[in-house]
Protein 1
Amino acid sequence: MAGIPGGELAPRDVVSRAVWRHMEAGHRVFLDARVVPELDFPRRFPAITRFCQAAGIDPVTEPIPVRPAAHYHMGGIAVDLAGRTSIEGLWACGEAACTGLHGANRLASNSLLEAAVCGRFVAESIKGTAPGRRGGVPAGAQAQAPADLLPVRKILSKTAGVLRDGDGLAAAAAELLPLALADAPASDPARVGLMTVIAALRRRESRGAHARTDFPARAAAAHRNVLRLGDALAAARELAPERVA
């Protein structure tokens, strides 16, 4: 982080890109808590301590290996001021909702602001709504198999992570399309992933956590993309018609 404004305390997307480039160059990156001797790490960070110990690392005496983690879907669901979506009976708040509190980045604790402020609006809205009648389970309905995230995770980590470009995103759409069209445990994650990469293809700029190496500049004016699953499937078919059975 030397020479970068803010250094190690720069915004998450800036630090993540620096860490990613360093790892791409063949290096490893560590978080060293030993430089703060008065820090009671196990008390302050009990969950991280347990994760480290499960991996055979003592965060009190050893540096912790780190790597960027991608928040692919930040603030994507459009809601009104009460947190209502376009689907009757469905509200959204927190990281899933698009209210404007997130901006273009997943910064530390802004999801807590979203949940604390908008969560109250949602609760008040639900409280003032008459309870609806739940439909029964259709005869012969079978429980769905658990979603299989691994195939989609590999594709997105390779092509739609910290740094993106048009060729990689188009390749990801081609790989995700047959999974999205299938009726398999990976299909639902593939549909979400497909919408992510098509939206990223359409945004030809870099803004917040969306960093495209082929369009590194930030557009002068912000704009919002509205993308539905049908739109994403149609766009993927145009990119890879040979993948459609």
Note: The two ends are 48 Å apart (CA to CA).
Protein 2
Amino acid sequence: MDERGKMLSWHSLPGSIVDNAGKVSFTDNGAGGTDLDVTISYHAPLGVAGQAAAKLLNPFFEKMVKSDIQSLKTYMEMGQNEKNM
């Protein structure tokens, strides 16, 4: 359910290794900027063992998402990728 200028959403294709879905909502913060609300959910493969591994990896995934959002922010504001700076 994408809404132009407000929200992007996705879900994995049938048969994907990791069943996942998510959305990114964009809200005007009233100070000339935009706030993002990111929601990602997934079901780890391999049952209980996969769930335990996923809990251990959650901090890594959170850091990766935050880094990707910062890269998007830099690109949108400056028109360049942080890696090219």
Note: The mean pLDDT is 82.
Protein 3
Amino acid sequence: MTRGRLAAVAVLAAVLVAVVGVVLRTREHRAAPPKRPSVSTSSVLVLTWAPSLCGVETSASGCRSGLVGRLGNSFVLHGLWPQPRSQQYCDVPKEDAARKRKQLSLPADLSNRLDGMMSDASVMAPHEWYAHGTCAGVTPVEYFSIATELAEQAIAVLDPVFDRAAGRQLTARSVRDAVDAGAGAGAGSRVALVCRDVPGSGPVVYEVRLSLPPVVQLRSAGRSLAKALAAGPAIAPGCGQARIP
């Protein structure tokens, strides 16, 4: 082989090595999860009125299976969301969340509590952890323990209000007044209603959202809803009023 050909081969080999290096670095960059540490400034406990859920989200697994219907007139736990809303899928790419869903393992007693409080815990619990819990700064057990304990207290206050209003209009003001009475003066200013349309029936009150401090701070709040609401930022009341199915 001539000196010219040897030089050409050496140049080609160097180019191939460089190309392979770029490809490998690109793959590593794409595979690495985004580093988005939690910078949550508050959190929102989200509760959905079960009869509204199945009117709006008819294809939801818990509605199709009858799980939600068996709960009757009650709230179900949707989730505990670090705020602002950009705090989602921390340290886990969204496209990887579905693959990881089956990896969520919780103690049996906590899993049983979620089964009785979520529309379909087998679907909702993994989704809520990867979408929101990963940004909370706590473990999955802490995250769901806090969410269920605060949700139980909130449901005890809200269920009677919504049950009495079934078939009628309910205002945000009346819900806020009930929370003031049940969780202390001023607590109602941390409550908002979310209304959505049921095809052919018009708007209904779909969810109640309660404004709380960051999830990491809820570990030391004694799991008291009254204390948690007192420490959360005030929020707008949301939709003014709508029907309760």
Note: The first strand starts at residue 42 and ends at 49.
Protein 4
Amino acid sequence: MIRTAIVVIFFAAVAIAVLAMTGDAGSATLTWLGWRVDMTAATAALLVLFAALAATIFWRGLIWLLEAPRRAARARERNRRKQAGEVLARGFLAAAAGDGSEARRLAQKASVLAEDSPALVRVLAAQAAEAAGDLPAAQAAYSAMLGFPEMRLAGHKGMMQTALSEGDKPAALRHAQSAYDLTRTARWAWRAVLESKLEAAEWPAALDLVKGALERKIVTPIVAERARAALLAASAAGLEGSDDDRTRSQALDYAMQAARLQPGFAPGVVMAARLLAADGKVGRASSMIEQAWKEAPHPALWLAYRDLRTNETPRERAARLAGLASLSPEARESRILSVEQALIAGDPAAAREAARPLLSEDPTARIAGLMARVAFADGNPDEARAWIARGAGAPQEPDWSDLDPEGRAFAYNRDDWARLVATYAETGELIHPRLERAERALSDLPELPVSYVESTPFVRAAETGAPVMPIPDDPGLGEMLQPSVSEPAPRRLGLRRRLASVPRASK
């Protein structure tokens, strides 16, 4: 204010001086207590302006002196708030670091300094008690927070966490449900309630929770769709084995909804296709599997597709499977399916050609078994046995583990379905519980005859002295079995015998 007055008076003084020098300066007379002062009008105006400036400065100075105590109090309050903020920050950091004793000391100090932030002090006290391992004190602090509307949500969360740490799941669920009812956006409360429903296999209740979370915008639409698809598939799996027609119809409805929500979700599609085929709706089942194959090829899909029709010749079946593989030709499963359909068609040369791209990757047990079948169909049982030996120690494929030894796909228990719902909803990926538990899956290694046949390269080499074709796993084995060049082996056609896979005892 004083700066503004000085600027205004300065410009006014300049204007008066310019006016006095360029025109009539005028005259002014001041009479006071017998004194008379004569001056120009410009001088009088300047005196008035400077007197006003002096009065302003005096008044502001007087106000500044009178407000000094209040100003000092405000400064002390600012310092106290600054200290309280620092103490609270250090206390929360100590609690996060697990230093319970330091967090408690800072919480007590904050209770004195931060009188205007009781909510933060209570939260710090509760977290400090948790960090110190004093659960009763933490529960008391969180319980006290329930009495304040602005702290009620944090109190429920703290009570839920302390209840879980004590193994009291019912109490934790009560607090989570209360928090979910209290606010529309508490994702942690929704997740806790959902997990309890999944653990109890209450699929309809979990579906309602997912729909409510979508309405409250707790989850995105894509997460909600994936969660609903997995929950519907879990519901269908629980009803599929029933002998009641109405129950099976309900299972089909659930599976169809799951397939419509997520066309690439293999468990829902396989279940829906299986139930449709049982009702004689093979065409609809084929269309669903074809759509799923375009989205995400899975071995359970082509196996279900293969078994949709039972009244066709091998060549017809092979042609149908080739059409399925052509829907996603660059996918690895489509390349494997191309080999399978060639074997079904009885064309080992085409099967070997289709399997060539698979040889560039590290073989799994499934690929080793597939190559063994190709080799055996092509008339090379020794190569087939080498592939079987190689596959015995090869790793399993996660997707192939979804098929149990009886060939049933996705035969999950309710805990597996609960995990699948949570994982698939968040990531869009399947879990593989049979692989995790190291359980047996559908056999991927073929069973071949124990003894060699007479047409193998080993027998022909022994009779003719020709070089022996090496086994793929041991390129040097052929040199070991090749007869010496200086002493060619005689041909003894009359003494031909079967060569057993078990070596003969030395004499």
Note: The first helix runs from residue 2 to 22.
